[in-house]
Write a structure and sequence with these properties.
This protein is α+β, with helices and mostly antiparallel strands and about 260 residues long. It is built from eight helices and seven strands. Strands 1-2-3-4-7-6-5 form a seven-stranded antiparallel β-sheet, with helices on both faces. The longest helix has 30 residues, at about 80-110. The protein binds zinc ion (ZN).
């Protein structure tokens, strides 16, 4: 991807609206092009500034009085301000209710839930790691190597178990970014298939049973257990992935039955 194309697609990339192939192509270009990387940083800052500020300004003091006064002047037959106000407020309130209902309905119909967005982010992380050959930062089957590697890189210590004796050898780990925070990604192998196991703390969250989903040919299973949330994803068939998840759940303490 060249500079022209990169800058043209940057807004879509920032919104997470690009397909994976183009998103990866942009990422590769940004790594090597200072000019586009600067444009990306600028747009990112602008987006953050817009999100951070409420696009709302309180009406100046006295505006309501001035409007009421000018309305009365325009229509001398108007009665006491409070009767006029009452009718207008009723109509305005009814309109506002309709607007809120329509907005809520629209959102319910078209806006994906937080879990949907997370499922897509997990899928993208998994596929991107496979495509860019960046599955592992620390290559090791030894949990005593992998677990300390995360120390200082994360504000929590992930549970790391080698499940080799149960047919799922640990091959390593890497840092990833999901749900607006750095997370641990552990990589396990099942025959020729890679399994990514993402985990991060969710303090005070209740335990949840495993939820199984399939997106674009990849199976995903997520659950919350002992204050941690877990997402496992692989192109393994769902039964084998579920067997892997049960092993992880068993190692991570008491859990809800699915
Ligand atoms: Zn460029």
């Amino acid at each position: 991807m060249n500079c022209h194309e990169t800058q043209r697609w940057l807004p879509g990339y920032l919104d997470g609206a690009l397909d994976l192939v183009n998103a990866v192509a942009i990422e590769e270009h940004l790594k090597t092009c200072a000019r586009c990387a600067q444009a990306y940083a600028n747009q990112q800052a602008l987006q953050a500034a817009i999100r951070g500020n409420r696009l709302y300004a309180p009406a100046p003091v006295g505006l309501q009085k001035r409007i009421e006064t000018s309305l009365r002047q325009a229509d001398p037959s108007a009665r006491a301000p409070w009767t006029v106000g009452w009718r207008w407020y009723s109509v305005a309130l009814a309109l506002a209710c309709v607007a809120v209902l329509a907005w809520g309905l629209g959102r319910a119909l078209v806006v994906p839930t937080a879990d949907d967005r997370l499922a897509m982010a997990v899928l993208n992380s998994h596929v991107r790691a496979l495509l860019t050959d960046h599955l592992i930062d620390v290559v090791s089957s030894d949990r005593h190597t992998v677990k300390p590697w995360f120390a200082g890189k994360l504000d929590f210590s992930p549970t790391v178990e080698d499940l080799a004796s149960q047919g799922h050898p640990l091959t390593g780990g890497r840092l990833d970014y999901l749900d607006g925070r750095p997370v641990a990604a552990l990589v396990y192998q099942r025959q020729r298939h890679s399994i990514n196991l993402f985990s991060w703390p969710v303090p005070q969250a209740r335990d949840t049973a495993a939820v199984i989903e399939e997106h674009q040919g990849y199976n995903q299973i997520h659950w919350t257990q002992a204050g941690m949330t877990y997402w496992a994803i692989s192109d393994l068939n769902v039964d084998e992935l579920h067997a892997f998840v049960q092993l992880v759940q068993h190692q991570s303490g008491p859990t809800l039955a699915p």
